[in-house]
From TrEMBL:
Source domain of life: Bacteria
GO molecular function term, any single one: dioxygenase activity
Matching InterPro entries: Aldolase_TIM (IPR013785), NMO (IPR004136)
Protein name: 2-nitropropane dioxygenase NPD
């Protein structure tokens, strides 16, 4: 059966896939545009880069596609509101936000008529986000890459949030690697769509270094571990030499705070510095965020090929949504 469209506010994605917004230049217009062209929601990672650079990338994306372009901005960032307002000014279609919870963001969304999508990991925050005016909610479970807000697996977490959210779309995120899993979340669990991040790192269009992609391709299940982040949340990453030092209790502290990017920081190490290093190819000294099931993915494909595989597999087993809102 043909997959349904995903409608968020007045925006419509022909394919119910949101590409996860991976920050520090992992998800740029180079990735977001082809995703939007394929009918999904292309997302630019808006955290950890200067506002003018973000605005330039948003404008570049909007010129290149008529599809939906979102921007993901972590609430934990010091310049969160500057990044949000800069994204709106540059023409972003949607703001996605997580890593903390902002009440004021919904007032901004209402004022500028732009959908706000909340990433949550608990029924309480999901219910609050719907009440405050979220246009959709992304349920992010423990299998996700990057910063994590829960230890609960997706197939346990999602039903508990589906029970309390009934008026807006609910998106499943965390560890989804193929179209069969996508159809399962939509058909069996009542998801309106899925968010996928790690699979798109292994795309030809993703602008990270080849060494970053090699770290994904070489990773075995035991190589994907939980790390302590100075953001104040655990994170999931590939076990690089830097991560091994962290796990061994070695001194990995930064000599100075170069970016001053976070509202609250433990200063255990500079996360922006380590993420930038990995992006640029210094995997030994970098932090390579990764979903729990990255080890299952063993080839680099174009964004179009990824969409084709997901849609073909999903539509071969998808029947109908189990839950209506």
């Amino acid at each position: 059966m043909k997959l349904p469209e995903l409608k968020i506010g007045s925006l419509i994605a022909k394919i119910p896939i949101i590409q996860g917004g991976m920050s520090i230049r992992v998800s740029t217009s180079a990735l977001a545009v082809p995703v939007a062209e394929c009918g999904g929601i292309g997302t630019i990672g808006g955290s950890g880069i200067p506002v003018p650079e973000l605005q330039e990338d948003i404008r570049k994306a909007k010129k290149a596609t008529k599809g939906v372009i979102a921007v993901n901005i972590m609430y934990a960032m010091k310049d969160f509101y500057d990044l949000v307002m800069g994204s709106i000014e540059a023409g972003a279609d949607m703001i996605i936000t997580g890593a903390g919870f902002s009440r004021d963001i919904f007032k901004i969304g209402a004022k500028f008529n732009i959908p706000i999508v909340s990433i949550v990991s608990s029924p309480g925050l999901a219910k609050l986000a719907e009440k405050l005016g979220a246009a959709a909610i992304i349920v992010e479970a423990t299998e996700a890459g990057g910063h994590l807000g829960t230890e609960t697996p997706l197939r346990e977490l999602f039903p508990s949030i589906r029970k309390v959210v009934s008026k807006i779309p609910l998106i499943a995120a965390g560890g989804i690697t193929n179209g069969f899993e996508m159809a399962e979340m939509m058909d069996k669990y009542g998801a309106d769509g899925v968010q996928i991040a790690s699979r798109f790192v292994l795309s030809k269009e993703c602008s990270v270094s080849e060494k970053f992609k090699e770290a994904f391709l070489k990773a075995k299940q035991e190589d994907i571990v939980l790390v302590s982040s100075p953001v104040g949340m655990p994170g999931r990453a590939v076990k690089t030499p830097f991560v091994e030092k962290m796990l061994n209790g070695d001194d990995i502290s930064a000599k100075s705070c170069l970016f001053k990017c976070l509202k609250k920081c433990s200063y255990k190490y500079c996360i922006s510095e380590r993420l930038r290093a990995a992006h640029d190819g210094d995997v030994e000294n970098g932090l390579v965020f990764s979903g729990a099931n990255t080890f299952k993915m063993k080839e680099i494909l174009s964004v179009q090929e990824i969409f084709n595989q997901f849609v073909q597999a999903a539509e071969s087993v998808y029947k109908e949504k189990a839950v209506q809102y």
